[in-house]
Prior knowledge:
Elements: E1 5-11, E2 18-22, E3 39-40, H1 55-65, E4 72-84, E5 87-96, H2 103-108, E6 112-114, H3 124-138
Parallel strand pairs: 1-5
Antiparallel strand pairs: 1-2, 2-6, 3-4, 4-5
Protein name: NUDIX hydrolase
Organism: Thiorhodococcus drewsii AZ1
Amino acid sequence: MSGPRLIMYHKQATSARTRFLKLPYGGVCGFEALPEGASLASGDGESENLVSHPAPLLREAESQLGLATGSLEAESGYRCKINWDEGSAEVYLAHFTSIDPPFDEVSAQGATFIDLTQARNLPQVELALLRLAYEHILG
């Protein structure tokens, strides 16, 4: 099993506008491109005996993005698994806790916020993960 991945988003409190963080490599599953042939695993992975906890992943993401500790919070109830020929990884979802997206901080790291409609050129597996994330966010 490879290291876990993280999808990060910001939801505006007043308008509910939701934006996902697109990372410098061009995708949304932090922090490097998924391997060729990666696909969404069937089921929710709840039968796994050993799962990772997202807290260290959140702290690492905050550090890589130059954000203060506590800038990201994990979304409970969202955990997906992706598989590829040589391995697999869990994917978690986290939201930014700030009122406004941290545009300047992420831009300094080469990342940007995108709307869901701007994600159409992402690999199919990332689109599937975003669809599940968006459904989770909307409730």
